Amino acid sequence: MAKSIRVLHVDDDPDFLDLAGEFLRRTDDRLDVETATSADEGLECLAGTDVDCIVSDYDMPDRDGIEFLEAVRAEYPDLPFILFTGKGSEEVASEAISAGVTDYLRKESGADKYALLANRVVNAVERHAAEREVDWHQTVLGNMDEGVYVVDEDCVLQFVNYRAQELDGVSELDWTGQPLSYLAEIDLLSESEVGWMREGVDSLLAGESDEVRIELEPAVPAATETVELRLTPLDIPGEPDLVLGTTRDITDRKRDEQELRRYETLIEETTDIITVLDDDGTIKYQSPSGERILGYDSGEVAGTVAFEYIHPDDREAVRETFRTLVDSADDSIERLEFRLRHADGSWRWLEAEISTEVEALDGYAVTSRDITDRKRRERERERYAAIADHMADGAFIIDSDRCVEHANEPAMMRADTSLSDVTGTPVMALARAMSATDADADRFERALDSVFQRAGTDDDTETVELDLALPTGEMTGEYNMAPVRIDGEWKVVATVRDITDRKRREETLGTLHEVTQDFMDATDKQSVAEHAVRTASQVLDQRITGLWLYDGEADALQPVAISDRGTDLFEAPPTFERGEGLAWRAFERGEVGVYNDLSEEPDRYNPDTPIRREMVLPLGEYGVMAMGRTTEGKFEDLDQALARILANTVEAALARADREAELRTQHRELQRQNERLDEFASVISHDLRNPLQVLEGSLELAEQTGDSTHFERARQAIQRMDRLITDLLTLARDGEPTDVGPICLADVVEDCWQNVETDDASLAVETTRVVEGDQSRVKQLLENLIRNAVEHGGSDVTITIGDLGDHPGFFVEDDGQGIPEADREHVFEVGYSTSENGTGFGLSIVSDIAEGHGWTVRATDGSDGGARFEITGVDQTE
Q1: Buried-exposed string 73-86: b where 16+ CB fall within 10 A, e elsewhere
Q2: What is the DSSP string of 231-299?
Q3: Longest dimension (CA), the chain
Q4: What is the dihedral angle through the alpha carbons of 774, 780, 785, 786, rounded to the nearest 10 degrees?
Q5: Is residue 537 part of a domain?
Q6: Residue 112 in domain
Q7: Which of 179, 627, 740, 847 is least crowded, fewest Cβ atoms below 10 Å from its Cβ?
Q8: Strand, coil or helix: what is 176?
Q9: H helices then E strands: how many in the chain?
Q10: In what order do the strands lie in the sheet with 394-398?
Q11: Region 473-493: what's the mean pLDDT?
């Protein structure tokens, strides 16, 4: 089963956390999701749990996602962190990049977003695991058999890494910060033993000795009877005087010493195992040292066959060697190495010498020594050599003569030479051959000299970045130099790491951060698209880049911007209909598509495309951005990561442009409504007040005089108020059409003529045109124009309605007295009227209805000198 990935998901919505966790686990069973509902809770969880990746919302109480990211980076600078938020904006993207976010992902509708999130998490964790270096110091400390302790001048434990595994329920943290007397308080050591330790610390710090060794008998199970504590001064720059203590279990050693003293007259202090075998391999005698080394009592093994204890893989070779020796008539000694089973079931390596038959012993003498540690060291050397040769970094050992003493395999591969060719070579000759410039070689030499000069001091390491020109290509190398003392001589270990991609990433991310402001300044989607393509081409070196935006009416992805190189390749970028090509797939699924061999993709839009590899990045609901190359190869992880960051920034910028466009529209509408409210207020305060006063006065006179003629004036006032209210309600409806369809002008004009008091006026309809519009609103427009003609042109006026020739529109004119040229720009204003019976709203309503349809209306001279109103920009139906 694949290694599980522990994810910490932080979001202030518990229901969303449960849902997201379920989807993530279903998407990838490696994902083990822990949850927290706030940044503070997330930090607490992080402190107590090993986490491979953090997924966090942005908009949370107390701390937002960026503040949480900054807190995480302060303690865990390399831990993958994905901002997964519904609040997408260029500001959030910019802050996230600056704070060191690993990835940025917007919450979208649908379950696909969880698959995308799972993919982002797995990729981030795998990249982090590949880049993470082993913390050798911690690893070594964690695997030492000895305990390690640091004590200050007050005899307080500052660091604890004990190896007393039998102390169940005791944490190393329980000891840290405690005085040495604490060990007596918990009955681990006696008061006397703690006193010896204090005396040793005082002696070392006073400079009276360089090392103190104390034998202790801690109160632990019998497996550990005696421990040797070794105290030495510890000098750490910037820290107070400290003492380093290391402990080793010497129980077995003490026992062996006692056993050795008991039998030293018999075996003359030898630590080898002396065994006597008869000619079939039966053990006749084994020295007591065999028990110490192999765990078998001498009496226990006597009478058994020695070959039964040998490892099956070694047994036949040892048996054959022994039989050859038995059958030989010559005096000889055979030497061989083999594994032998310890009494505890483990295997120990022995080096044995078997002599021909010894008459005094009546058998064959075998002298064996335990070489398990030596074998382990040999294996360790082999492992270290293998690790060194399989490191990603090149490594050199430079001797005091400034010559190359050794180099690992990666270093030789980069230099395109062999170890034998460079061993003994002056390192500066190699450095000048590898450096891109003399200045880089000089900086290497200065750093090396500095390390040699300061070897053994508190500050004796150097790090220097150099541009290298190697047979394998150009790169930026980061050299870390540190002195090491080998066989009494100071030497320097220099490791070189390829940081070319890191430098490029840092420079590119910096540039992306700088251009974020340009995205913020873009006021519309077209500007955002053009800037996105320009950024991809110039900053990311993606010379062939295009951006397609989704057109809801056409249900297609329309090309809106393409780079210069893309224009050279494609004279007319394609429009992707629903389901067409890899672009639609990315848009529909919301997943980044990376195609390193486009010819293998059956869903590619154009089988004959010159593009050989392509990345298609979804931009949420807005569309996609595609980057391609005409050369074969693959998009590196860095290329993909930078492209994703740019795509997220572009998506946020498009959302911002949408919001700004909507705000501008709302602002214009609000401004227009405010103006209309001002107009309504004027009408209510003035135009309605006059007829109300007339009505009030007429009723008062009628009441006082009984004259019925006053009722007629009151009735006229009521009629005027009715017309004003009707026109005000019409204006309040605005001119926006709500039910657009085909309208036959001739039919509508006939209906309008019936609805208007036309007295002796006559009508001439000279159009058969069918237009697109809201019939009720168009009727209102025509009725107001007819009423205006009758009111201002006279009761016997002739009104003509016809087409505007080849122009998309129609006209309404009369043969009345016309409109003076100076008044034509005012006739459409609210409240403007030259008739004592007019409300001043009729032509304003006409203007609003026309504007709502996207039409334009203007007043001009009629063909017979009267008034003419031309309506243009009208959509027509054949």
Answers
A1: eeeeeebbbbbbbe
A2: EEEE--TTS--EEEEEEEE-HHHHHHHHHHHHHHHHHTT--SEEEEE-TT-BEEEE-THHHHHH---HH
A3: 166
A4: 120
A5: yes
A6: yes
A7: 740
A8: coil
A9: 28, 33
A10: 404-407, 394-398, 489-498, 473-486, 462-470
A11: 85
- Distance of alpha carbon 600 from its chain centroid, rounded? 29
Question: Considering the domain boundaries, does residue 833 fall inside one?
Answer: yes
Q: Which of 376, 406, 428 is the last residue of a domain?
A: 376
Residue after which a domain boundary falls, among 498, 522, 544: 498
Residue 227 in contact with residue 247, Cβ under 8 Å? yes
For residues 100-125, average pLDDT: 82
Q: pLDDT tens-digit profile of 131-148? A: 665 455 555 555 556 778
Yes or no: say if 810 and 802 are a contact pair by the CB < 8 Å rule. yes
The residue type found at 95 is E
The set of residues, in sequence order, having a beta carbon less than 8 Å from that of 170 and lying 6+ positions away, is: none
CA–CA dist 714, 178 (Å, integer): 103
Degrees to nearest 5, angle at CA 733 with 729 and 737: 145
As a whole number of angstroms, the distance between CA 162 and CA 179 comes to 16
Same domain for 363 and 408? Answer: no
Helical ranges in 480-524 per DSSP H = 500-521
d(C-alpha 290, C-alpha 617), whole Å: 71
Side chain identity at residue 815, one-letter code: D
Detail the DSSP E strand segments found in 37-106.
Answer: 53-56, 81-85, 103-106
Query: Is residue 648 within 8 Å of residue 106, measured between CB atoms?
Result: yes
Q: Which residues contact 255 (CB under 8 A, 6 or more apart)?
A: 292
pLDDT digits (tens, 9 = 90+) for 325-338: 888 767 778 888 88
Q: Is residue 490 part of a domain?
A: yes
**pLDDT above 80 (res 712):** no
CATH code for position 318: 3.30.450.20
Kindly compute the dihedral angle of the four CA atoms of residues 310, 315, 320, 326, in this order, to the nearest 10 degrees. Answer: 20
pTM of the model: 0.38
Q: Which residues contact 281 (CB under 8 A, 6 or more apart)?
A: 305, 306, 307, 319, 322
Which residues, 6 or more positions from 639, have their beta carbon under 8 angstroms from its beta carbon?
540, 542, 615
CA dihedral 533, 534, 538, 544 (to 10 degrees): 40
Residue percentage of the chain with pLDDT more than 70: 81
Buried b (16+ CB within 10 A) or exposed e, 571-593: eebbebeeeebbbbbbbeebbbb
* Among 465, 500, 502, 501, residue whose Cα is nearest residue 480: 465
Q: What percent of the chain has pLDDT over 90?
A: 12
Is 335 within 8 Å of 352 (Cβ atoms)?
Answer: yes
Measured CA to CA, the distance from residue 121 to residue 7 in angstroms comes to 8
Distance of CA 772 to the CA centre of its chain: 51
Q: Buried b / exposed e across 328-340, counting CB within 10 Å, b at 16+?
A: eeeeeebeeebbb
Which domain, by its residues, includes 235?
137-249
Residue type present at position 108? E
Residue 808: the pLDDT is 84
**Average pLDDT in the chain:** 80
Task: For residue 52, give every residue at least 6 positions away whose Cβ sits within 8 Å of its Cβ, in sequence order, or none.
Answer: 5, 6, 7, 80, 125, 128
What the block records as the tokens of 730 is 């019409």
Counting every residue written for the chain, the total comes to: 878
User: CB neighbours (10 Å) of residue 383?
Assistant: 10
β partners of residue 283: 277
| Number of domains observed in the structure of the chain | 6
Helix or strand (DSSP H, E) at 714: helix 709-732
b/e map 834-844, b = 16+ CB within 10 Å: eeeebbbbbbb
In this structure, the number of other CB atoms found within 10 A of the CB of residue 204 comes to: 24
From edge to edge, which strands make up the β-sheet containing 283-286?
Answer: 283-286, 273-277, 363-370, 347-358, 333-341
